[in-house]
Amino acid sequence: MRKMFGGVIIALGAAAGGALLAAWSAPLAGQTAAAYRAPRTADGKPDLNGIWQSLSGANYDIEAHMARPAMAVRPGPYGPVPAAAVLALGAVGAVPPGMGIVEGGPIPYKPEALAKKKENQEKWLERDPEIKCYLPGVPRATYMPYPFQILQSQSAVFFAYEYAGAVRNIYMKDPGPPPADSWMGQSVGKWEGDTLVITVTGFNDSTWFDRAGNHHSDSLKVTERWTPKGPDHLWYEATIEDPKTFSKPWKISMPLYRRVEPNAQLMQFKCVEFVEEMMYGELRKKPTQPAAPKEQKE
Fold it and tell me: Which are the contacts of 88, defined by CB distance < 8 A and separation ≥ 6?
């Protein structure tokens, strides 16, 4: 009896599992998902208006990376331990693992540029521009852990970032070469079908791609592609070119998600005032604390 009923149950279970699998797979057989068509603005262009945010860990390190105790470390008895300056942060100062957003392998640094990247990592506390609330540059502004807003009309496209009050005006008619190098560069856009393509040039050499010391020169050129893939997400790609720093162009890509809360809005995080004590507190007549660590000049 036990064998008979057991066999019946197994048979029924297999049949049910097969039916369920068939039901799941039936809509996929011989079919392809229809391409998403985004809502349109009055001039017929895809409507990118909204507040968006990355959920990647790319701001820690745009390359694939394992978890580690901190961005700033020192040798320990059984491996690296957090540097003294960040030790009290504990797990808050640790680095979570990330799959990375760089396509096709490691960043193709030239040898001397790779050496500088490693030096940046060792001197992260003194060098990372994010610590001092400097403007983040492009593409880093896109995947920092803060939302940003795209404001689009028939005549203009404007990006506003929560971090540091950063902004970008996207010129839809090329104004010519950038008049000066800057933190956020000059952005010139055009539409290729449903994709907004933005070419950004005119950078200074002071921004990083992440907290891991990945850097560039003032020859950086970033070509971004913003493509709506659903009502609440965009696909973001950026091709990085910098012949002074990299042996060839390379690319990052990731999804960006719409903030859908009923009261979603861009808040203010003008962090300059929050770093004044760190950067200038030692200049007080009566400093409140020891001077912040600074890079030694040889």
Answer: none
Find, among 245, 127, 142, 238, the residue nearest to 184 by Cα.
142
Output DSSP code: residue 86: G
> Which residue in this structure is represented by tokens 């540059």?
137
pTM higher than 0.90: no
Name the band, by pLDDT with cuts 50, 70 and 90, for residue 241: very high
CA gap 228, 110 in Å, rounded: 34
**pLDDT given for residue 42 in this prediction:** 92
Extents of the domains making up the chain: 50-62+102-281, 65-98
Q: Which amino acid is at 145?
A: P
pLDDT at position 291: 63
Q: Looking at the predicted structure, is the pLDDT value of residue 1 above 70?
A: no
User: Do residues 252 and 102 make contact, with C-beta atoms less than 8 angstroms apart?
Assistant: yes
DSSP character at residue 68? B
pLDDT digits (tens, 9 = 90+) for 128-158: 999 999 999 999 999 999 999 999 998 899 9
- C-alpha distances in angstroms, 189 versus 91, 200, 208, 223, 225? 41, 9, 23, 10, 10
Q: Return the minimum-mean-pLDDT range out of 13-22, 71-80, 246-255.
A: 13-22
